[in-house]
Structure formats: C-alpha cells, structure tokens
C-alpha cells in the first residue's frame, strides 16, 4: 500500500473515478472527475483519505447508509453525483458501448426513474450470534450492511421492512447467508429466498406461523418451493393480470417497464404477427396481444405457464402461443422467422448472439432489442446492422437508479 495524491480524469463503467498516473490507471470509488484526492493505493485500486479539490458536480447523498467513511451499503455507487452529470454518465455508457462497435445511431435522452420506484429488490440476509443482518453487501465484499431505510426501494417494500425482517428471521438458520428477493405485487409482497440450506419441518412451521401473523405478505418461497401463500401474487402488465412464479424475472422498476413497453408497442405498431423472445412472464407479449397475434418464447417453464394462463384468462386479446426453448442453443431460424412481421427480444446480460445471427439473415421488418447490458447490446446491434438493419434510435432507461447499470431499448427496421 502507498499513499498518493491524484486528480480524477473521468468516471469508469462502474462509476469509479479514474486517475491516470505514471504507474497506470487507478480506480477510486466515490471520487469525481476534476477532484484532487489523497488516496491509499493498492495496485490499481484507491481509497480516498482526504479531498484537496472538490467537484462542483458533487452533491450530498440522499441515504444515510451511503457514507464511504462509515459502514457503507454497496447497493448504490453514484448518489454523490449531481443529477445532470449523472444522467449524462448513464447515457454515455450506451453511446460509448455502441461507438466501440463502430455504431453511431441517434441515442435519446435518458428516461429517468426516481427514488422510491424499485418494486423488486434482493436483500442479503445472515443471522449472526448477536443479530439478524438484512440489507445489501458492502461494495465488492460479502459483508452485509443492515439497512433501516433505502431511498431506491418503493414505499410498498420499505413500509413493510419489519414484516420482511420477521420472515427472514424465520427462514434464517444459524449458518450461512442467503438472498431474499422481494417483489411488490398488487396483493402483497412476494418473498423468494434462495441459497438457503434445506428447511426442517419445525422451521417450515415457523415460517408459516410468522407469515400468517403478519399483514401484507402474499407468498414466501424457499429455493423455488412455495412455503406459504396467503394470496396469489399478482402483477399488472398493461392491464393484463399475471401471477408470476416464485423468484421469476420481473423488471425491477415499474416506471422503467412501462417506458420500455411503450417503446416496444410504438415501434411494432401495426404488425399483425409478433414474436417475443426471452418473454419471461409476458411483460411485452401480453401487452402486444391487444393488437397482434403473439408467439412468446422463453426458457423458464414456470414463467411461460404464468404467461399462458394470463392470456387465457384475459378477454379481448389476440391469440397468444407459447414455446419453451433454449434460445442460446436453438435460436429460431431465419426460415422460422418468416412467420413474423416484428420481433422483440430481451435477453439476459449475455445478450442474444445466436438468435441475432439468425435475425440478421431474416426478412423480419421491425425488430426491438431490449437490453440490460450495453456491451452485449452493442455486439448484437453490430450483427444486425451488418445484416442490413437500420438502427432508428436507441433509448437508455435508468431502471437501476444510482447504480452503474443501465437498460436500453433499440428500435431497428429493414
Ligand atoms: C431480461 S429477462 C426478460 C424477460 C421479459 N422479457 C420481461 O421483460 O420481463 C430475460 C429472460 O430470458 C430468459 N432466458 C434466459 N436464458 C434463456 C435461454 N437460453 N433461452 C430462453 N430464454 C432464456 C430468462 O428466463 C428471462 O425470463
């Protein structure tokens, strides 16, 4: 370890300040471009000891758990940056990833999401000898910082933090940390624990008793198995009600989901036969089915069942068909794609390379790419552009407030 004074040049992709020094770049969390800071340096990592020059873009963080000098929660990394440069940073993540692949399409302004809008969050939980820890990991460690409030999570979650803690306490055994995903639904909170040791009968009864004594908990599951379900969890996809399976993928912020869905619907417009790939529980498919026949393809059987059931239970939709398929190993071929006027794809962080190679050879007129990873999005868009698609626009969406993650929707046409 050495101490050094450096001036920060720019922000890196994780939101850390980067200073270029004679020994190479050093990454300094919580430092901003233009700031001069004394750091303790360990290789390419720096920790701020004191600040000699402060950026005018620096603001006081909103959250009391966001304090690098104390036991800081690692859930957020950009609360110290003022709103406008913060939005530029997020948008630039998308612009830079595209530019690195030689793509310079129009990139719209960031669709902003505000505090208190996250309806899905994943807590880390561990019982220690003294207490139950429930919160988020300190950045890049397994150390759990217990939280009392979180300005990112929705009031529907934070107002029930005590209930969540009681369920977590009933689930927690003496050994081992686990993750507890909390989804706010129309009928109450859907809690899904994973990474738990198998529960014994006594512990199961404890969870059921705890939940039945509480209000506001719709369901608790552990490692995919439902333990107790006083209410079926229900979410609303543009007016279609869906009961998702435990721990299913769900867009983390409802406002971001609505903004992305509006872009999908506007671009697919008058298409009569739409293919929704990586469809999840039907976030886009069920909205699209108001005006088009939809074929929804997804790898998770339970999500697909929820989608199918919702389509059957809803009046006034066009026909929806579903298919369980591994789209990495067995993408829809260019030949199969002939049946569709428009394709929407929303893959996990790895992107959709195999599927995109088929799309690039297809004649599908309109394509929408939804992505939570600008790097794989850029790779996939490059393949589509090389296959003759024009990128009309790319819209970055701030689904993950104050984190370095950004969602984006790209609209393409041939
Ligand atoms: C980012 S989510 C999007 C889900 C949905 N479009 C939504 O907005 O809620 C990605 C989806 O891809 C599915 N998935 C992951 N790998 C897959 C694969 N190899 N083949 C098919 N689906 C996959 C996941 O189960 C998940 O539902």
UniProtKB/TrEMBL annotation:
Family the entry assigns: Belongs to the class I-like SAM-binding methyltransferase superfamily. RNA M5U methyltransferase family.
Residue positions of the active site: 372 (nucleophile), 372
UniProt keywords, alphabetically: 4Fe-4S, Iron, Iron-sulfur, Metal-binding, Methyltransferase, S-adenosyl-L-methionine, Transferase
PANTHER family (alphabetical): 23S RRNA (URACIL(1939)-C(5))-METHYLTRANSFERASE RLMD, RNA M5U METHYLTRANSFERASE
Matching InterPro entries: MeTrfase_TrmA_AS (IPR030390), NA-bd_OB-fold (IPR012340), SAM-dependent_MTases_sf (IPR029063), TRAM_dom (IPR002792), U5_MeTrfase_fam (IPR010280)
The TRAM domain, residue ranges: 2-39
UniProt-annotated binding residues for S-adenosyl-L-methionine: 251, 278, 298, 346
Pfam families, per the entry: TRAM, tRNA_U5-meth_tr
Name of the protein in question: Class I SAM-dependent RNA methyltransferase
Any GO molecular function: methyltransferase activity
Gene3D superfamilies (alphabetical): 2.40.50.1070, Nucleic acid-binding proteins, Vaccinia Virus protein VP39
GO biological process, one term: methylation
Keyword Flavoprotein: no
